[in-house]
Design a protein that fits this description.
Elements lengths: L5 H12 L5 H8 L3 H13 L19 E9 L4 H12 L4 E6 L6 E7 L2 H12 L5 E8 L14
Antiparallel strand pairs: 1-3, 1-4, 2-3
Helix pairs in contact: 2-3
Length: 154
């Protein structure tokens, strides 16, 4: 981990909790004046520790209530197949998260769609285009217990 002091860690944790806090609010929380607080945040950003700031949307409130985890197995483990898969999967808006994993499958996808019909369309029209896929195993989320974006650092 890059060298961070306790104030840097506090700032990162605070920004992960609420990135819309003003510099003034943040400076009060870490007991620094505004200018040094701003400089520290800019330094943290320039080092790439904070990648970007985003708004987290409630998927159900925008009619995206079906969460599906897809385990994908490729036919062959060739570099060209992995690159083709990555290029294709990065073009799909329904795919929220992709991890290359060890174990019985090659990739784990988190897909968010409106309903089962939209998921069927996703599989039949978008995923089946890839002839390099040998297997797709789907697991449907019944209820989400925890969905956190904050990485607590100490």
């Amino acid at each position: 981990m890059q060298q961070l002091d306790t104030i840097d860690l506090q700032l990162i944790n605070e920004l992960q909790t609420d990135a819309k806090q003003s510099i003034k609010q943040l400076s009060q929380k870490v007991n620094l004046s505004i200018t040094p607080t701003h400089e520290r945040i800019k330094k943290i950003e320039s080092r790439g520790i904070i990648k970007k700031y985003v708004a987290i949307v409630d998927a159900e409130l925008i009619n995206r209530s079906l969460i599906v985890y897809c385990q994908i197995t490729l036919l062959k483990h060739q570099e060209s197949d992995f690159k083709e898969f990555e290029k294709h999967i990065n073009s799909l808006d329904e795919v929220m998260d992709v991890s290359y994993i060890a174990g019985g499958y090659d990739f784990l996808l988190k897909v968010i769609v409106r309903d089962i019909q939209e998921y069927e369309h996703f599989i039949l029209k978008k995923m089946s285009q890839l002839k390099i896929i040998s297997n797709i195993q789907s697991s449907f989320v019944i209820r989400q217990i925890k969905n956190e974006t904050k990485i607590t650092i100490k």
